[in-house]
């Protein structure tokens, strides 16, 4: 079973949480910034770090919204959305290289999903790439979801 299918519930939950919180607007992603992770419940932080996302942030990408962090009984989730003027192909090549040989890639309705890890994995990463976003004036959107099982 792909990571995409196994984390559908988590993605829906994050979608609801992210829509329910105000956006911080467009902020530049800076490596090493403290996102203010929470020990329980949900929390918004200004910037996400590569360490908490489990993968590097795409070079030059701007963080579009605040990072959403949630600690559940058995899992910890972090998700955040970035934008870049670069093409889907460039972003896809970057994340495939960063996530390594265990990477799975799938496409649906023009969006591309890159994932590493399975439902039973202790650590999984899901990157969704949306080209030519109408919301962001044609920029490419990158959403990273990192799940760690306790």
Question: If you had to describe this structure to a student in words, what would you say it looks like?
Answer:
- Residues 1-41 have low confidence and may be disordered.
- Strands 1, 2, 3, 4, 5, 6, 7, 8 and 9 form a 9-stranded antiparallel sheet that branches.
- 22% of the residues lie in helices and 35% in strands.
- It has one domain (3-149).
- The protein contains 4 helices and 9 strands.
- The two termini are 21 Å apart.
- The protein has 150 residues and is an alpha+beta fold.
Task: Give a brief description.
It contains four helices and nine strands, in the order ααββαβββαββββ.
SSE inventory with pairings:
Layout: H1 3-6, H2 8-20, E1 27-28, E2 41-45, H3 50-53, E3 62-63, E4 67-71, E5 75-84, H4 88-99, E6 104-108, E7 111-116, E8 123-130, E9 140-149
Antiparallel strand pairs: 1-3, 2-4, 3-5, 4-5, 5-9, 6-7, 7-8, 8-9
């Amino acid at each position: 079973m792909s990571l995409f299918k196994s984390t559908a519930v988590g993605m829906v939950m994050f979608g609801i949480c992210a829509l329910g919180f105000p956006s911080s607007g467009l902020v530049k992603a800076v490596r090493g910034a403290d996102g203010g992770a929470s020990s329980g419940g949900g929390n918004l932080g200004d910037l996400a770090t590569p360490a908490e996302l489990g993968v590097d942030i795409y070079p030059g990408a701007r963080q579009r919204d605040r990072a959403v962090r949630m600690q559940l009984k058995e899992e910890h989730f972090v998700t955040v959305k970035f934008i870049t003027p670069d093409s889907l192909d460039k972003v896809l090549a970057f994340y495939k290289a960063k996530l390594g040989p265990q990477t799975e890639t799938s496409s649906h309705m023009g969006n591309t999903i890159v994932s590493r890890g399975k439902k039973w994995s202790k650590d999984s990463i899901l990157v969704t790439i949306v080209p030519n976003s109408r919301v962001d004036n044609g920029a490419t959107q990158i959403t990273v979801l990192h799940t760690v099982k306790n």
